[in-house]
Amino acid sequence: MERGLAITPHSLSFSSNLVLRVHQIRFFSLPCASGTKVHVTVGHTTVMAKATYFYHKAHVASTTTSTTASTSPPQTFDPSVEYSYLAVLDPLTCSDQAEISTPRVVFVLLQLDREVLCPPRSHVVCSRLDTDVNKHVCRIAFHGRVDAVIENVATSVRIGKVKERRGVVDKTLDDPAVVIIKEIFRKETNWDVFRGLRVQNVRTKRVGQLDGPFGKAGKVRAVFPNDDVAVPGDVVVLRFTKILFQDKHDRSLGQSPTIYNDQEGSATTFKEDKGSTGGNKSEGGSTSAALLASVECEKKCRTGLVERLKGETATNGSNPSVIAAGLFATAEEAAEFIGAQVATDAAEVGYVEALFGKAGKVRVVFPDGGTFAKVGQTLRLFEK
């Protein structure tokens, strides 16, 4: 039986980018990572789409204040607002049921593999139809009504992803307010886009400003308040927000007034990705799980998912490699982390071997006996 839509000529156009508010299905038990594909059903049409999850910053404020004084975040998408990137949308758990009455406003940008006819406020159902049908699990992840049909993602959707670089105070100059920072940029980095951004001394918590390059080895000069006594070896952090999908010619970076507060960009409510776009990479190869656990608190962490298993499955059930999704937003970003360490929940340690496609996916190899991780399980990438 053929199905279709009866419409007035030219009353609808084909669309390939949709934004909707996420309403999760509580029976769906798998996490959903940004950058992974979902099956999108609009009307009688089902098509694959890349999903990017994001939320309003007001959500963090409303969940950290008293329930009587908090203000609910906006319930509909506003293209003029800058939203926060959400790396992984966790499934609803039993403990979440008591919080369902509190608005948990999450949106998703769906970049469809092909255009579809989408009437205004259409009801959209997003599923994971690639899961094993023999496991008898819910495969409908979430649903929602279309809030916006996007023609140009670069100009109509502002999703800010918090990124972080860390360096070390190399030395101070005659003026005690001026310090030289090393290891925060590579020598080939075009650091002009970082000029004037604020940095924080982790030990003293004082905030200074990047002033200019120092030499040709990637070192930079920063100015701190006169009462901030920095010493060589102090860790300095540069935290900023990069807008996803922006034009390649628009390399501007942003910093909110509260970006160095503990609350902003934290992973207390959402698993916010605060990975670095540069700096030193971890070396490829194997390390012991005990060593990885001991330094975990000193590293930044990206969270992704096992999208599929690769290689021949061994007799003990392990696989030599997996395809990871959600660790990176783009292939360009992923290319900077070739060789970085990745760990499973079972403390199996591998490394990023190569890119997989153009959507930020990577192939992760586990050289010491493979991995027993399954599709949908969490992966974590650690950085120094």
Give a quick summary of the entry.
With 384 residues, the protein is mainly β. It has helices at 58-64, 153-156, 289-295, 331-335, and strands spanning 14-21, 23-24, 32-33, 37-42, 45-55, 82-86, 88-89, 106-117, 123-127, 140-149, 158-172, 178-182, 198-201, 207-214, 219-223, 235-243, 300-310, 321-325, 341-344, 349-355, 362-365, 378-383. Residues 98-103 and 263-299 have low confidence and may be disordered.
- End-to-end Cα distance: 58 Å
Our estimate of the beta-strand percent is 35-45%
Please tell me the overall pLDDT: 80
- Low-pLDDT segments, ≥5 res: 98-103, 263-299
- Provide the domain count: 3
Give the second-level CATH assignment, the architecture of the largest domain. Beta Barrel
Oligomer: single chain
CATH superfamily of the largest domain: Translation factors
The percentage helix is: under 10%
What is the number of helices?
4
Number of strands: 22
Molecular shape: globular
What is the makeup of the main sheet?
14 strands, mixed
**Rg, nearest Å:** 23 Å
Secondary structure class reads mainly beta
The name of the CATH topology of the largest domain is Elongation Factor Tu (Ef-tu), domain 3
CATH class of the largest domain: Mainly Beta
Sequence of secondary-structure elements: EEEEEHEEEEEHEEEEEEHEEHEEEE
